[in-house]
Every structure is written in structure tokens, then in C-alpha cells.
Amino acid sequence: MSTDTQTPKPARSAPASRADRAGRPTLGKLWDTWGITAILALLLAATPLVAPDFLEFSNLQSVLRESAYLGIVAAGMTFAIASGAFDLSVGGQLALVSVVTLIGYSAGGTALAVAAAVATGLACGLVNAGLITGLRVPPFVATLGTLFVFRGVAYILTQDGPKTLPYDQIGSPFVKIGGLNVAGIPLPFVIMLVVYGAAWLLLRRTATGRRILSYGSSPAAARFCGISETRIRIFVFALVGVSVGIAALTYITRVWTADGSAQDGFELKVIAAVVLGGTSLKGGKGTLIGTFSAVLLVSVLNDMLVSQGVPSAYQRIVLGCVLIVALTIDGLRTRFAAPGSFRRALSVLVQRPSPVDGA
Amino acid sequence: MRKMGLLPIALAAALVMAGCSDSNATDPKTAGKDDKVVVGFSVYDMQYEFFQKMEAGTRAAATAKGWEFKLHDEKSDENEMVTGAQALIDQGVDVLIISPFKPSALGPIIAKAKAKGVPVIVDDIGGGGAPYDAIVISDNAGGGKLAADYMVKQIAANNKTSKNVASITCEPSAVYAARRNAGFKEAIEKAGFKVVAELSGNSKAEEGYKVMKDILAKNPDVAGVFSCNDPMGVAAANAIKDAGKNPVTDIVSVGFNADPEAITAIKAGGLAATVAQDPKAMGELTVKLAEQAIKKQAITFSNPAEREVFNPVALITKENADTVK
User: What proportion of chain B, given as a percentage, has pLDDT over 70?
Assistant: First the structure.
């Protein structure tokens, strides 16, 4: 693109050129990236009124600590969904990685446990990628199948292997990962911040990130441009696997126990958070800032509902409604995606012709 | 945009350099904000009637003592269990009562409670080998004995001379449930009977049915059968009916748990008896133990090795089946 796209022209020079439109922020585009963050900010601003205890330091720590495992996997899932695919197996991966990590810890302590977690996550991701690229199974079906396979393997491994971190190991560096605070900030959340920093760079500042987005927006066009479908698939599913590996470290050291049933329904929570954040299910559009804020939004909301003694049936209803409302707003947003559309809509409301585009 | 991406990394790096602290090693908070005792109860899942009754008993007993009662629902999720129970401790409860969804996840909760000097009373399910202060469980062995005593009487009333009975167990990993069959066996053998078959139905109705068919094929003269839970108990009784015999007057069938299906079967003559647990009384008992733990009084254990306190169970037959809700 030419350099003049970087200098916003006055909006008066209608009709605006295409390049001009691309450079100007619109309400729709702002909503894409920052919408859920704005809602999170509103919710946090309301906390002193509805849940004063929420702002206690120990509670904030607890919310951040608890968000980490969901958030880290959601970062990986953002890539998968941006590339136009789902990974439905992350719940099975989390269970399997956690169980293998327990075995690794009992066999070789902290170092082996950490290595086992990341390696198992990567292996799970490569199994998915192999099924999708090698056997040409659609991602949705392949990962639905491996979801059950991974859980099954986890069940088999816990039949004879360790099911829990032993209580007498409470002082070991590994067990402390989940409970440690770094300058008051829970270590799992610090890990999550690092993961998001790296993921943001990968998606927004590398050629690989751009290829994933362009493949997601149009696989056919991307193929014409010489983007390898196989490489995109392998990369994305391996990335999801590694994210589960890292997430499992923050999970198992906080909960201490895992088996094949661990975190039943996890995959749907992850996908819900990614979609809530503004990543399009159609692929081609991904926002890590949105995912990050959506994960925190869900955690904050959950914590507030629990601490206010809302019965669990209503907690589920509230969280479901939040998802529906967010997606409804997302649908409305597409109407305001073009520049000036918001003003046009407003001008219709006040019953007078628009001074700008006036169409 | 660029700033947003790098900020977390810079922040994280700064924090790593700033040094570490351990959340499990914070100084013990002075118990309670005022002199009112606050009790936190983390419940397995409020969807189930058993735990609704347990919650009602716990709440009533705590309120009767003038305590503040805080409830947390684990929603059958080990992550929610750890997060929510730790949150109760953060909120400054003086004592924590918990019916754990996963006993093996009690470790991090009790570690935090110990760091803050909060006693932990476990209600049912299991202790997971963690250093809890006490655990309340139903008197499973006593329930097995109740079943045996009833069976002896009923067999005599049936005018049966056979001294052979059968016992269907839950899955081997269910250690508390195994005590039911052990208690049954001990009591019935004392009465001069012999357990000719002791087989596992893995807690499942369909397997209980199959196991009973096998028993009837190999030992057609059994005068009674005790099952470790009601789904298997009702299924075994159905197998007896399908074999053309009566599960009350021919082969005395006894289950365990007083599930609604068992009560219905007992009223219809499709099952002889069951043993009822009392979750409401269990909840009340945990509050009593919680008070003793706060006051640092010695707790009288039924099984000191595992710090277990047993809650009595009751036999349910056709005579008193209407009293069960």
C-alpha cells in the first residue's frame, strides 16, 4: 500500500478512497478489538457497588490465578479459529497432559514434569495435525474423535499411575507453580501474560501470523498465493497442543489431581471465550486482546456470581446470556463496519439527512 | 497496538526481577473480622437431593449456633472446588466444611487452610489422604450389620432352612462402600450363615442384574442377597423376580442408600429393605465437630487412624418406607 494510507485525510473529502477507509478506525473495527475490553472495564467499575469484597487483594489474586489455564489455551485456540478450524480435543488434551505430568513428576521431579507437559501437549497437537493433513479428516471431526481418545488414554494411565500430587511434596518447586506470587501477581497469570505477549507478536508481527489469517479468510485464495495448507494446519494444531501443555502446568499445580474426566466440557468454555472476545467463527479474523479480556470477563463474572451466593443454575444462565448478548452485538457490529455507517444510522434516527455521505 | 503487545512482556520481566513470594506462606489472619463465627461450606453439587439435604442440615445447625453461613457450590468440578474453597478461606472463614467432588484435590485447599490456621471438616466422599481435622461418613459397616440382622429375621419368617446368602459389592476402588459388604458379612456369619458368593457389580444396575443371574445359576438355594447400593439391589431383585421367585419371601433382597427407586420397589414388594443414610444429620454433625475444632477440643473419632466420625444409618422396610421423603 502507498504511504498516504497512513495519513488520515479529513472526513469531508467524500467519497473517501478505499485506502482511506482502511486506515480510519470505525466503531465496528474498534468494537472488534476493544469491545469486550470495554465491557470488562464497565463490569470492574461496577464491582464496588455489587460485590465490594471482589476488590480485596487476595480475591483479585485468586481470580487471576484461576483464569490462567483457560486463558492460555484460549490464546492457542484463537489461532485455530482464526485459521478457520476448531480444536475440540483441548479438554482431552488437558486431562491427558495433566496425567502425564503427574507421572513425570513422580518419576523425575520438577524438570521432567515440565518437559512432560509441553512434550505431551505438542504430541497431542501433532496427532490432530496428522489426522487432518495426512488422512484428510475435517478438523471438527478429527478433534472430536481425539477428544475421546485422549480422555480414554488418561483414564488408562490413572488406573495404575499417580492420581494426585502427594501432600508431603508441598514445598517442591513444581507444586509451587500454582500458588506462587511474583511481586503479588500469581505466577500462573504471569505465565499467561508472557504467552499472550508472544502470541500477539506471532499473530501480528510475523509472516506466519499473516498467513494464518489469510488462510482463514479464504483458503482457496491463500492456496493461490502459495500458502501451504498442510503447514498452516500442522503449525496451528501444534500451537494449540503446546498452549495446552503450558496451561496444564498452571492447572495441575493448582488443583493437584487429574484423571480422564478432568475439566469435562473445557473445549466449549475455551471456544466460548475466544468467540466472546471477537474472533470470527468464519475464520480470517483473530483478536488476542479480545480473547484475553473475554477470559478475564468470564472469570470475574463467575467469581462475582459465586461470591454473591447466586445459585449455580442461575450462574450458568447468566454466563450463557452474556455469550448470546456479545454475539448479538457482534452481529449488529457488522452493520457499522463501513466508515460513516454509524453516523448514517444516527442521522436516520434523528430524521435528517447526513451531512457527510448523504446517500 | 504495538505497545499493547510488548507491555505484558515488559511487565512480566519487571515482576520476575522484583522477586517472589509464596501464597501458601502468608501470615495467619486473625480469625474473623468480629466475634461472630463464620463457617464456610463447600458442597459437592447442589443439583443432587443428597447434597441439598446435607446443605440444609449444615445451614440449620450453623444458624442455630448464631454463626454466619457461607455456601459454595463445587458444581461437580475439581477446578471450581479448589478455587471456591480457597476463596472461602480468603474471605476469612473460621472453619471450613467441605464435601469434596474430588477428594484428591483436597491437598491445595487444606494446605491453604493450614497456612491460615483454619480447621477443615470433610463431609462424606473421602479424605484423599490429606491432613483434614475430621471426616464425617455414614456408618457403612453398621449399615451392613443392620441389613444382616434384618435378613436373618426375615429368612426365619420366610421359613427357609438354607444358610447360604450372597453379597454384591461396588467397584473395588470405593473403599467406604466396601465396608458395607464387610459389615454385612461379619454380622451374618455370626448368625450362622455363609456368604457363598461375593461378586462385584461395579455399582451398576445392569451388572448387578447379571451377577444375580449367575448367583441363581450356581447357588439356587441362597436365602438372601445384600447389595452395596440400591441400583444393584433393585436389579438383583428384578433378576430374582425374572427367575420366578419373590425378592421378599423367597430370597430376601436388601439394598443400600434409600434411593427413590428402592423406596418405590419396597412399597410394591419388589425389594425387601434398604439402608438409609442421613445427609441432613451428617451436616449437623460436621457443625458440631467444627465447633470442637475451633475451640480446640478433642474430637472423639469412630476410627482414630483416619480421623473418621461415623453418622448412624437406618433400616428402611415396608413398615417405615412412607417416612422416607
Answer: 89
pLDDT of residue B21: 46
Q: Cα(B50)–Cα(B311) distance, rounded to whole angstroms?
A: 15
CATH of the structural domain B35-132+279-311, one choice from 3.40.50.880, 3.40.50.2300, 1.10.540.10, 3.20.20.110: 3.40.50.2300
| CATH number at B140-277 | 3.40.50.2300
**pLDDT value of residue A337:** 60
Residue pointed to by grid coordinates 476469612:
B92
Amino acid at A262: A
pLDDT at position A50 is: 82
| Domain residue ranges in chain B | 35-132+279-311, 140-277
- Chain mean pLDDT for chain B: 89
- pLDDT (tens digit, 9 = 90+) per residue, A47-70? 888 888 788 888 899 899 999 999
Residue A286, classified by CB atoms within 10 Å of its CB into exposed (0-12), middle (13-18) or buried (19+), is: buried
Pairing of strands B120-123, B95-98: parallel
Sheet holding B224-227, edge to edge: B194-200, B164-169, B224-227, B252-254
Does the pTM exceed 0.90?
A: no
Reference A297, options A34, A38, A64, A40; nearest CA is A40
Residue B308 grid cell: 473418621
The average pLDDT across B170-188 equals 91
Instruction: Label residues A237-248 b or e (16+ Cβ within 10 Å = b).
Output: bbbbbbbbbbbb
Q: Which fold has domain A25-41+50-336?
A: ABC transporter involved in vitamin B12 uptake, BtuC (1.10.3470)
Beta bridge partners of B167: B198, B226
**SS3 at position A177:** coil
Chain A, window 234-253: residues with a beta carbon less than 8 angstroms from a chain B beta carbon: 251
- Report the half-sphere exposure of A25 (CA within 13 A, side-chain side): 7
Q: Kindly state the helix (H) or strand (E) to which residue B153 belongs, with its residue range.
A: helix B140-157
Which residue of chain A has the CA closest to B52? Answer: A311
Q: How far apart are CA B224 and CA B253, in angstroms?
A: 6
Distance CA A285, CA A282 (A): 8
d(CA A199, CA A213): 13
* Peptide bond preceding A15 in cis form (omega within 30 of 0): yes
B-facing residues of A in 27-66 (CB < 8 A) are: 53, 56, 58-59, 61-62, 65-66
Tell me the percentage of chain B whose pLDDT exceeds 90: 77
* Shortest alpha-carbon distance between residue B324 and chain A (Å): 26
Mean pLDDT of chain A: 86
Report the pLDDT averaged over residues A101-120.
95
Which of B30-44, B134-148, B151-165 has the weakest average pLDDT? Answer: B30-44
- Within chain B, what is the greatest distance between any pair of CA atoms? 88
Residue type, B230: D
pLDDT band at B214 (very low <50, low <70, confident <90, very high): very high
Write down the domain spans for chain A: 25-41+50-336
Better-predicted residue by pLDDT, B133 or A30 = B133
Which residues from chain A sit within 8 angstroms of residue B21, using beta carbons? Answer: 180-184
Q: Are strands B274-276 and B314-316 parallel, antiparallel or unpaired?
A: antiparallel
Q: For A13-23, what is each residue's pLDDT tens digit? A: 444 444 444 55
**Residue A336: band (very low, low, confident or very high) from pLDDT cuts 50, 70, 90:** low
Substitution target in A34, A70, A204, A256 with the highest count of B β-carbons within 10 Å is A256
**Are both B35-132+279-311 and B140-277 of the same fold?**
yes
Highest mean pLDDT among A141-155, A292-306, A323-337: A141-155
3-class SS of residue A353 = coil
